[in-house]
Amino acid sequence: MAVPDHVRDPSEIYRQSFATIRAEADLGRFSAPLADVVIRLIHACGMTDLAGDIVASADLVEAGRAALMAGAPVICDVEMVRHGVIARLMPKANPVICLLGDPRVADLATAKATTRSAAQVDLWSEHMAGAVIAIGNAPTALFRLLELIDAGAPRPAVILGLPVGFVGAAESKDELIANPRGVSYLAVRGRRGGSAMASAAVNALAAGLEGHG
Amino acid sequence: MAVPDHVRDPSEIYRQSFATIRAEADLGRFSAPLADVVIRLIHACGMTDLAGDIVASADLVEAGRAALMAGAPVICDVEMVRHGVIARLMPKANPVICLLGDPRVADLATAKATTRSAAQVDLWSEHMAGAVIAIGNAPTALFRLLELIDAGAPRPAVILGLPVGFVGAAESKDELIANPRGVSYLAVRGRRGGSAMASAAVNALAAGLEGHG
C-alpha cells in the first residue's frame, strides 16, 4: 500500500488545471477577460460543462475591476464566500463583508417571515453603493437584493449571482438575468452555484487567473 | 419589473429541497442513515446525479457519530470548510480546526516543495487520533494524509474525502476508496467535490437531516 506519485508543486497544479479547462470547456462565446472568470469558476467546481450555463453582462469584468480599484467593498451572503475571497488579491485592501452573523438578523428574519440570509440583505444598504456583491448560497438573498434595488436601494456595481439548490435558485438567477436593472451581473443558470464559485468569481475580478489561494 | 413570488420560509425551503432530492436522486443503494448524508451532499451542490459518484464505507455514519459524541475534533483543510460546519450541531461542542493559516505552514510548504494545503497536514498529528477529517479543497492534502497514516500517524475515525478539481482530485479519492487503511471514509469519485460538500458531510454526521444552517 503506497500513495501514488502526484504533482505537488502549486504553480504546476494551477498550470495543468487551467490547461485542462481550456482544452475541454467551450469558451468560444466569451470575451478573453470573461473567459478568465469562467475558467476560475470551472476550476472551483471541477466541471467543464459549467461554461454552458454561465451568463454575464458584457461589461462585467470592466465594472468589477473598476469597482474594486475604487476601493468598493465585497459583500457576501455567507461566511464561506467571505473566507474564499483571497484578501491579498484585493487591489485596495477592499473590505470583505458578511452580515449573516449580525445580532440583528435573527429578529429581522422572524419579523419578516423569511430566511436569515434574506433578512441580512436589509442591513447591506449602507455598504451597497458601488459594491461587488457575491451571493453563493441563498436564493432568498438574491431575490431580496433585487427587491431592494427595485425599491430604490443604493445600486451595487456588480452582482455575482450564484445561489445553489432546488428552491428558488434557478428562478432568482433567471430574474437577475432577465432584468439586470442596470447592474452588471454574472450568473450560473439552473441549480448549480455555491460559495466556492462565488468567491472564485470575486478573485477572478480582482486578479484574473493570477494570484492563487 | 417585479421580483417573482417565492418561498421564504426556511423550513419549507428545506422540506421542498429534500423532497425534490428524494424524488430525483437514485438513493436505493444507500442505507437509510447514509442516504441522509447523501441528501445533504446533494443539497449543498444542487446536483441529484451526485449520488452515483458517492462511495462510503458501510460504517461511515456510525463511526462518524461515535467520534463526534466522544468529543472528537473536526479537522478541515480550508477555512471555507470550517465555516460551513454548523457549530451548534456539534454534539459535544467539538473543536473545528483548520491549520492552513498556521504561521509554520508557508515555510513547511517551501521546505517540502509542496502545497500549503499538504504541508499543514503534517501539523495535524496531535489532533488526528479519532478525529473527523474533512477535505474539501486540496487533493495534495488528501494524498499527504494517506501518506502519514501509512507512515504510522495517529488514525482518524473518519475521512471525508471531497477534494475538487483537475489535478489529483480523482486519483486521491480513488486511493482513499481502494485502500481505506481501516479508516471509515466517504468520497465523491471524480473531479467533483468542494468545501460545501465537505462541510455538509460533517453536518450530516452530526445531525442527519435535522439542524439547518
Automatic annotation (TrEMBL), chains A, B:
InterPro entries: Cbl_synth_CobH/CbiC, CobH/CbiC_sf
Organism domain of life: Bacteria
Cobalamin biosynthesis precorrin-8X methylmutase CobH/CbiC domain span: 12-206
A molecular function (GO) term: precorrin-8X methylmutase activity
GO biological process entries: cobalamin biosynthetic process
Pathway it works in: Cofactor biosynthesis; adenosylcobalamin biosynthesis
Keywords: Cobalamin biosynthesis, Isomerase
Protein family per UniProt: Belongs to the CobH/CbiC family.
Name of the protein in question: Precorrin-8X methylmutase
